[in-house]
Structures are given as structure tokens and as C-alpha cells.
Amino acid sequence: MPTHQWILFVAAGVLLNLTPGPDVFFIIAHAARRGVRAGVVAALGISAGCCVHVLAAAVGVSALVAASATAFDVLKWLGAIYLVYVGVRMLIAGLGGSGSSGARGAADTQVALTTVFRRGFLTNVLNPKVALFFLAFVPQFIAPGSAHAPAMFLALGLLFTFNSTLVNTGWACAAAWAARRAGAMQRAMRWLDGVAGSLFIGFGVKLALTDAPARL
Q1: Three-state DSSP class for 131?
Q2: Whole-angstrom Cα distance, residue 131 to residue 59?
Q3: What are phi and psi of 75, to 5 degrees?
Q4: Of the residues 27, 108, 156, 166, which has the fewest C-beta atoms closer than 10 A?
């Protein structure tokens, strides 16, 4: 692939990753409430989910999901249910009791990073729209009839994921910095959880109402 194509691919990927969506809000919520480390771990979990989509697309599984209304619907409903579940948990945390800020802060920091990683991973991997995105976006940068199309797809997909990890880490750092500048007030953090939770419920409902590509 010519150099200018690589540059265009990277630039387009960065711009796409700067657009807020479920993944970005998930990272921001964790970074603002629990610090940069939690935000970065959330970003890594999401990147791991992207790697699954890239590998699936490279071997044709994502194409099968895109072509099969049943497969798409199964994955769609799993993703929608999980997004609503995450949203409800955030909303409950945001509307939770008024316990002492110190106790609530300690509870926040004790949330296992492995749990944050797992939630980020599931948020991404259960979203069929991510699979469809890779199928629609990456092939545009592969020459038709290329003898190494699967390998090229895999390389470009992993490059996109690497770049998205850098951008998402930036989101985590920015959110944690903003929280510190604001004094990390517990009321503000609960408000953030409430807003993020409502957004996740909205994302889940929107995903549930999405039609399979075959029916569009």
C-alpha cells in the first residue's frame, strides 16, 4: 500500500476514534471516578475487544454475522442487554445513597482492575456494529484482488486498534485531569455516573432497534 494510503488510514482512524461513543464514555466515566489507571485499563479492555473483531473479520466470521440476520440479532441483543446492564449499574451508583465521601472513594479505588478490563472488553466485543465497521472501513484501503488480503486486513485492523488505544488513553488522561482540577467532588462524580449510565442505556436501546444489514 502506498505511503499516502497509510497516512490517510491512520488520520481517518484517529478522527473516528476522537468521536465520542459507548467506548469513550465508558473510559471517561472510569478515569474521572477512579483515576488514570482505571481509565487506561478500560481502554485496554476495549482494545482487546477490537482485536477479537479484527481477527473475526480477517477469517470471515464478521462477514457471516453481517450476512446472517439471525447471527446479527443474537449478537445485537446480547450487546444491547449488556449495555443497558452497565448503564443501570452506573445510574444506580450515580443515584446511590449519600454515604461519606471518604468511604465511597475508598470503595471506588477497590474495584478490581480486572473487572474494569472485563467490562470494557464485553462492551466492545458484544457490539456487532464494531464488526460491521471493520468490514466497511478497512477493505477500502486494500487493493482489489490482493493476494494477501486477509493478512493486509489483519495488519490494518491491528494498526487501527493500536492507534485507538493511544487516543483512548488520551481520553482517560484528560478525564482524570479534569476530575482532579474540579476537586473530584463526590457529588460531581455521582452526577457523571448518572449521565454516563443514562447514555449507556440509550446506546443499548439504540442497538436493540438496529436492523440487520440484510434487511436494510
Answers
A1: helix
A2: 12
A3: -65, -40
A4: 166
**In terms of Cα–Cα distance, which of 27, 33, 66, 54 is closest to 185?**
33
Task: Please count the structural domains in the chain.
Answer: 1
Q: Is residue 13 part of a domain?
A: no
Q: What Å distances lie between residue 147 and 9, 109, 143, CA to CA?
A: 20, 50, 9
Cβ proximity of 179 and 33 under 8 Å: yes
Other beta carbons within 10 Å of 100? 9
- Residue 92 resides in a domain: yes
**Residue 26 contacts residue 120 (beta carbons within 8 Å):** yes
On whether the CB atoms of residues 57 and 63 are closer than 8 A, the answer is: yes
Domain around 63:
21-215
Cell numbers representing residue 41 in the block: 485499563
Per-residue pLDDT tens for 133-168? 787 778 778 776 677 778 888 899 999 999 999 999
Give the span between the Cα atoms of 191 and 57, in whole angstroms: 38
**How far apart (Å, rounded) are the C-alpha atoms in residues 96 and 79?**
25
Residue 49 binned pLDDT confidence (cut-offs 50, 70, 90): very high
Angle at 88 between CA 213 and CA 41, to 5 degrees: 80
pLDDT digits (tens, 9 = 90+) for 15-35: 777 777 788 888 988 898 888
